[in-house]
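Sequence only, no structure available. Ideas?
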Amino acid sequence: MKQRLLSLDVFRGLTVAMMILVNNPGDWGHIYAPLEHAEWNGCTPTDLVFPFFLFIVGVSISFAFQGKVADRKTILKIIERSIKLFALGIFLSLFPKFDFSIVRIPGVLQRIALVFLVSSIVFLMTKQRTQQIIFASLLIGYWLLMTFMPVPDAGAANLEPEHNLGAYLDRLLLGVPHLYKAVKVWDPEGILSTLPAIANGLAGVLVGTWLQRNDKSVSERILYIYFYGSIALALAWAWDAAGFPINKSLWTSSYSLWTIGLAMFFLAGFYWLIDVKGYKSWTKPFVVYGVNAITVFFLSGLIPRIMNMIKVEMPDGEKVSSITWLYQSFIVPFFSEPKNASLAGAITFVLIWLGILWIMYEKKMIVKV
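Reply:
I predicted one. Tokens follow.
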């Protein structure tokens, strides 16, 4: 029987709940700094969410495919799931106008699909030593490309938003109409930066494999994770200081290592607390989020868009979206500070989904993509 880590479900659920919290503030104009992405260099708590999820994807792969071989049936299932995830991401980009001429091609679900695809195949077709080499090669190779390779039409290698190599390739291969609309000339989930993002997934694969080592004691497994997590954080800090700054938008190698190290700390802590010490009474809210993670992420992105299409008239005669009407009518009046109201709106959204997911969990409704 395959092992299942309750701590991994909890970590996944916490990550997805945080993802929904930061993606759905009551008012985008009033957000507390920790709930925003770093403007460029640096890392806020919000910047940890996506790489944590990719790390968790990797850990899950090591458990789901442990003992399996890379036969045609397994590979086809991996490809099928990757296509479904990618298609869901494209659907969110298209909705509601379905204008293929300007659809954003990269995205969160699209990147998850690619990381899942590559990490799964690497896990099934290589040994652990090879996985470690690929992991290091992705980070070092990306650093070399971004800091040494000249950028056409821009000159020397640089890490500026518009003129770095990744931004150039996004415009060349995808086209400006198909990039992130907020910045237009580059994409935070672009082509080149997917390479170090895959490293986050492979790090999860390696940690998940270690956790299943029955020839090692629980203490050894936990100490290993903390030890190598500390090394990842130290290398990230050193790389940042050496000129390859921690930066989510570029998904720099230092950022990848920084988030991997912190993810290892979180997972080791949850593993010790939940699976080893047995403190499980508090975990259910996170578990119900964790078992339907992709479902809630997709629907939490889709439903607000539908609600934005439904207009409601305010007392002053102004017509606003139904989601704005609900926020202005039932959240804002109870708070004098706009940022508190915005945070309360986001928390309310998370709690509503918690109720829905709880019912689904009790009815054993787990939607698998």
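The longest strand covers residues 311-313.
Hope that gets you unstuck.
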